[in-house]
Structures are given as structure tokens and as C-alpha cells.
Specification:
By secondary structure, this protein is an alpha+beta fold. The protein has 4 helices and 3 strands. The chain is about 40% helix and about 20% strand. Strands 1-3-2 form a 3-stranded antiparallel β-sheet, with helices on one face. About 25% of the residues are buried.
Length: about 90
């Protein structure tokens, strides 16, 4: 049986594969949910661009937590079948 799409782990690994030139991991989040996923995180930087917020953190652990939470709540500002499938898998986890 062929596997359809990317797993949650693959999506997060791809998203966090690189840092920006200033050393931050960047997670694109829908603007209306940025407070929900970034609250309680020390050293978070949020840059608003239109209806998207770029949540930036230096800690990989915090970046992964934010990405998982945003994905589970449907707040990750990425599109595609892989993202939708991962959202379904993680819904209810947070």
C-alpha cells in the first residue's frame, strides 16, 4: 500500500530545516491565531505580513512545539494536501 503525502514529522522537519540569516526558526502562522500558539514562549519575535504572522524563535524545541500546535489547530499558514492531512492527524492533540 503506497503512502499518501508527507507525514507530520516530515512536514515539521521541512519547515524547520533552515534558520533565517539571524538564527531564528520561522513558522508562518495565520494572524488570527498567533497569540494562541506563541503565548508563553520566551524570546519569540512576531512579524506581521498581511494576514500572516511570522513567528520566530531561536530554540528548535520551541519552534517544533509552535509548529505542531499551529498545525493541530489549523493555524499554520501553509497550503496543500499534506498540510490538510497532517492537521487531521493532529486535531485534538492540543
Amino acid at each position: 500500500m503506497a503512502r499518501k503525502g508527507k507525514s507530520v514529522e516530515e512536514l515539521i522537519r521541512e519547515l524547520l530545516a533552515r534558520r533565517n540569516p539571524h538564527g531564528y526558526y520561522v513558522i508562518p502562522v495565520k494572524l488570527d491565531g498567533v497569540n494562541e500558539v506563541a503565548s508563553g514562549v520566551e524570546g519569540v519575535v512576531v512579524e506581521e505580513i498581511g494576514d500572516i504572522a511570522l513567528v520566530m524563535v531561536r530554540s528548535r524545541r520551541e519552534a517544533e512545539r509552535i509548529a505542531r500546535q499551529a498545525l493541530a489547530k489549523g493555524l499554520l499558514a501553509l497550503e496543500g494536501e499534506d498540510v490538510e492531512e497532517a492537521e487531521e492527524k493532529l486535531s485534538g492533540e492540543f
